[in-house]
Amino acid sequence: MRKFILIWFGQLVSTIGSYMSEFALTLWAWELTGSATALALVGFFSLLPRIFISIFAGIIVDHANRKHLMILGDAIAASSTLAILILHLSGNLAIWHLYLAASVNGGFGQIQQLAYSTSITLLVSPQNYTRANSMNSVVHYGSNIIAPAIAGVLYPIIGLGGILPIDLATFGIAIATLVWIRIPQPVRETGKHWSASTMPSALAEARRASGDRATGRNKLSVFWSEITFGIRYIWRRDSLRTLLIITALFWFAHDLGGAIFEPMILARSDNNSQVLGAISSAAGIGGVTGAVMLSAWGGTKRRVNGMLLGFMGAGVAKTIFGLGQSLTVWLPAQFCSSLNFPLLGSSQKALWMEATPPELQGRVFAADELVVKLVSAIATLIAGPLCDRILEPAMLSSTILSSLFSPIFGNDAGAGMALLYVVCAIAMFAVGVFGFRLSQLHQREDLV
After folding, report:
1. What are phi and psi of 227, to 5 degrees?
2. N or C terminus of the chain with fewer C-beta within 10 Å?
């Protein structure tokens, strides 16, 4: 685990800097536009290139040096931050620059994230998969504790121009750890010596693709076979196909509500950056607490149960959060919500790791992320206009929707966004309940 821990530390430091920048940019964009759609579009433009890149990312990660890809991802992100800093200091920064930067970072970040996740199985033993993934949860949630609190205090003092250089310094630390550490690379399927009777079907298919390349089969056909390998691997297995569908449904509901999370809080707190920072920190504390508990515990005996229980727990907590209108409700609800995500995320990733040989993980993981990112992009794209053009005006005027739900959500700014947030949270809970009724989800662990 030593190499993994060192890489993990570099990513933790870098993520803290990135989250500080994201928090500061969110405040800057809200001050400029006051629009939920404008903020949601930042997330959409980050997801859009991830969808396209995911088509090819698996092939790239399975055939290129994963360490070099991780360094490239950090270097591109640092370059984008530097460009935004220069534009801001020169007084030329506009909202569309954030969309462009989000697109660039999203595309290269997808490759970096995939290279990192597929390296875990080569850096840690199978019994430590859940623990390693829970440590990765600490990267996200630990950064959520520190970054918003620091950025919320520093933003009124040093502004965006003072926070972005901090982010640049943290990128240097992450890149330095990657340069120093040797990351193992998987043995390619063409180099293995399997007998015809014992070769796993997936590896046999990959071998045939390599043979097709060697014999000069139609290049377009071979390329198409490589691109679609991951989705075919998943779709031919009932348990993996069901796992993909159930997780896509959960993340669609999650991201539809998550896209309007920040504008909802800012609208209901009169643009108070410290309230948003306090809620983000509560999320971080809950996530780190969940990750530490999971690392000590090791997770549920059946990982499918851990994932589904996490879906349900997150749905309940987010429902309470959406119903609240003050920090007295928001802080404990956000803490409890984030407590569930290390369990559901680590369990989900461990299921994919167990089901896929290391030399095929790039393509299979990319196929999974392609589907999830696609539904997330759709959710993110429709969330802003749905709130700005339909739900917010309806809740602020005399309509049937307002008469039904204003006693629960009020009729002030942010009420329409809160309504959508609660509906999405209930849907997340329902996905978890429905998952327990799907026997196909349990087939994978039965085989293991």
Report:
1. -65, -40
2. C
